[in-house]
Amino acid sequence: MNDNTEVIFDHKGSIGLITLNRPKALNALSLSMVKMIHAQLLNWERDNKIFAVVIQGAGDKTFCAGGDIRVLYNKRGTDYGQIYYTNEYLLNVTIFNFSKPFIALMDGVVMGGGAGVSVHGSHRIVTERTLFAMPETSIGLFPDVGASWFLLKCPGEIGMYLGLIGARLSAADCLYAKIADYYMKSDSLDLLINELSAISNQPGHIDDVISKYTNKVGLNNLSEKKETIDRCFSAESIEKIIENLKSEDDIWSKETIDSLNKMSPTSLKITFRQLRKARTIEEFENVVAMEYRMANRCFNGHDLFEGIRAVVVDKDRTPKWSPSKVDDISEEDIDEYFTQKPDEPDFYNYKI
After folding, report:
1. 230 included as an active-site residue
2. Which of 68, 143, 278, 323 could hold 134 in an S-S bridge, CB 3.0 to 4.6 Å?
3. Which among 59, 113, 146, 307 is annotated as catalytic?
4. Residues 6, 68, 88, 144: which is the catalytic one?
5. What does the pLDDT read at residue 2?
């Protein structure tokens, strides 16, 4: 076992076990964690003694609440953002393309970067403690870590709704949204790991073991709102989405408008463009390359740092967005976030 203070790697029988080990920091992903996990996955992919990989979070409240945005804030004006996003997105691509079963125990809070190290796996398990969200528009960013890919897998316009609003999902919602595959009680996870560690080198055995511990999940909230979400969020612009919500004239729609009004207007505009544009992109690596351009532009802009300041630094929850209104942002302004720059990383060479 490599008992690093931030991430623990354990060879347990036939599985490689990753434990995100920053419970006091909600298991937020530091740059060093990202690099170590990436390197370890490449090693385990070549190791014939490792049949599958399991990833979990330390503690009983959080799988991973995202990237370490406080460090990101402190590194403003440097090339840290470019370095961090390159490494984080390479890790996401590695998980997406991993040749062995990758089993994510999404127990507790799963947000932002936590989705990037779980949702792209082959087996995504949620529990009664799961709380999932992509809340990036509230800090002046956008749903990244490959969210352009997995949000499009959601039924109807639910992916657009989740990406813009950052709505919090239960385990049942995650299953409905196709963000997760299995539901089980949290007290079964250790038993699951022990049994997985003893399985033989046959893919079907993993599904057999997991099925022993799965349970029926309760009702979800998303399906009840899907018809309204599809009607409102299928619009051709953010402005039109808000118009559609106003025409609904019910409590949920008013609450949704209130949520949208709290988000960075720039983030709303780029997220809308991102999720519509992703429909035309066939390969995951190209989706990640698009997100890299967007992230790099955000790191060199205003709203990301203002959002982080308001949420985790000063904690006043009153960000001063610039521009402050969606109407003040032109399509030409948004074009900048999607313009390819020289010397971008090649996400096809994720093993280099």
Report:
1. no
2. 143
3. 113
4. 144
5. 53
Tens digit of pLDDT for each residue in 124-138?
A: 999 999 999 999 999
In the predicted model, what is the mean pLDDT of residues 332-342?
A: 94
Can you tell me the distance from the alpha carbon of 176 to that of 219, in angstroms, rounded to the nearest whole number? 10
Residue 351 scores a pLDDT above 80: no
From the candidates 67, 114, 159, 163, give the one annotated as an active-site residue. 67
248 is catalytic: no
**Structural tokens at position 178:** 């196709």
Is residue 114 annotated as part of the catalytic site, yes or no?
no
Give the per-residue pLDDT at 249: 86
Residue 210, domain CATH: 3.90.226.10
pLDDT in tens, 204-244: 689 999 999 999 998 899 999 999 999 999 999 999 999 99
Which domain, by its residues, includes 168? 1-352
Average pLDDT of the chain is 95
Task: Report how many domains make up the chain.
Answer: 1
